[in-house]
């Protein structure tokens, strides 16, 4: 690689890393009122610089990130995304486009306080950023000592923002929050009680009048093992099983799963589903839900005809 390109790419990566660290610091600072806006601004800037660096080294040409109108203008983030992630089903592309959408809306000052609901989407975005940076630029000394985790808890007094009545914000927010549950990543935190103060990270006391209830268990349960499937993974597993029985024309779709959930408690019963309340309501599903749907679909003709794709 020519020295000029190496120095330019390195400068882009340094600024990208700074933007990433700023985004992480802002989103984890509870005293700030505009964490969503701040996070989106800096993480989008970090992604744009990172993708530009990747485009340059892939083409071995600094001018590959410029528009071809001889104005010396460089392409924006959306153009970078299209150049790097060419597949329409790329999960990184989908997640990043959601974040860009939130950033664009927030610049119009009509974004309500949805930090808690956006946390899973942002967490997944940080994970993708870390992975892309490390895989594409293994020789760069990326600051892996920083844990890319978002710590946002839901305020018990959180109310609907009056800004929700402006324009189409309510519809926009509902769609984005839905995407957060599908394309986001939840966090699972376990607490262990010990009587040895030196081994404890925090101190607690028992208060019978507290409104916050907990349940003590002697054997901790790993919900990630009990509920290994995301929404998309559960549907994919069902489709793969049905394909062995019916072939590719099984007719089971995402809509089939959603319709079944309206008639059966596969999204509410703890046997089938676990809801991460502290991560924006992200759901994960057990093997039981896959087995239940596959069994009914294969053995109950009425069930199959009711939920299979029509036409």
Characteristic terms for this protein:
311 residues, mainly alpha, 2 domains
What does this structure look like?
The chain is mostly helical and 311 residues long. It has two domains: 3-183; 223-307, no CATH class. The chain has eleven helices and two strands, in the order αααααααααββαα. It has helices at residues 3-27, 35-59, 77-84, 91-106, 115-136, 169-183, 223-226, 231-246, 254-263, 287-299, 301-307; strands spanning 273-276, 282-285. Strand 1 (273-276) and strand 2 form a beta hairpin. The relative contact order is 0.09. Residues 155-169 have low confidence and may be disordered.
Short description:
The chain is mainly α and 311 residues long. The protein is 52% helix and 3% strand.
What's the topology here?
Elements: H1 3-27, H2 35-59, H3 77-84, H4 91-106, H5 115-136, H6 169-183, H7 223-226, H8 231-246, H9 254-263, E1 273-276, E2 282-285, H10 287-299, H11 301-307
Antiparallel strand pairs: 1-2
Radius of gyration: 23 Å
Note the gap between the termini: 55 Å
Largest sheet: 2 strands, antiparallel
Helix amount: 40-55%
Backbone shape: globular
SSE order, as H and E?
HHHHHHHHHEEHH
The count of domains is 2
The amount of beta strand, in percent, is under 5%
Class by SSE composition: mainly alpha
Number of strands: 2
By DSSP (H or I, 4+ residues per run), the number of helices equals 11
Q: How do the strands of the widest beta sheet line up side by side?
A: 1-2
Low-confidence stretches: 155-169
Q: What is the overall pLDDT average?
A: 79
């Amino acid at each position: 690689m020519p020295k000029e390109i190496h120095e330019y790419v390195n400068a882009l990566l340094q600024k990208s890393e700074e933007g990433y660290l700023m985004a992480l610091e802002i989103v984890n600072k509870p005293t700030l009122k505009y964490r969503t806006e701040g996070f989106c601004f800096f993480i989008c800037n970090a992604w744009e610089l990172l993708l530009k660096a990747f485009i340059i080294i892939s083409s071995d040409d600094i001018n590959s990130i410029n528009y071809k109108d001889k104005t010396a203008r460089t392409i924006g983030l959306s153009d970078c995304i299209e150049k790097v992630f060419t597949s329409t089903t790329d999960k990184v592309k989908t997640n990043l486009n959601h974040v860009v959408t939130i950033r664009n809306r927030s610049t119009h000052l009509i974004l309500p306080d949805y930090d808690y609901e956006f946390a899973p989407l942002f967490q997944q975005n940080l994970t993708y950023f870390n992975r892309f940076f490390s895989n594409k630029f293994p020789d760069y000394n990326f600051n892996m000592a920083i844990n890319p985790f978002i710590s946002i808890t839901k305020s018990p007094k959180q109310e609907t923002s009056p800004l929700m009545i402006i324009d189409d914000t309510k519809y926009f927010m509902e769609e984005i929050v839905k995407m957060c549950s599908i394309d986001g990543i939840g966090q699972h935190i376990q607490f262990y009680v010990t009587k040895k103060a030196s081994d404890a990270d925090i101190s607690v006391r028992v208060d019978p009048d507290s409104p916050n209830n907990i349940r003590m268990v002697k054997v901790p349960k790993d919900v990630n093992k009990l509920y290994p499937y995301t929404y998309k993974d559960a549907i994919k597993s069902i489709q793969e099983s049905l394909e062995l029985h019916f072939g590719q024309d099984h007719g089971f779709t995402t809509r089939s799963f959603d319709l079944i959930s309206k008639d059966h408690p596969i999204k509410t019963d703890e046997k089938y589903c676990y809801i991460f309340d502290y991560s924006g309501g992200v759901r994960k599903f057990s093997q039981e839900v896959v087995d239940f749907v596959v069994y009914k679909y294969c053995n109950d003709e009425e069930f199959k005809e009711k939920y299979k794709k029509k036409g």
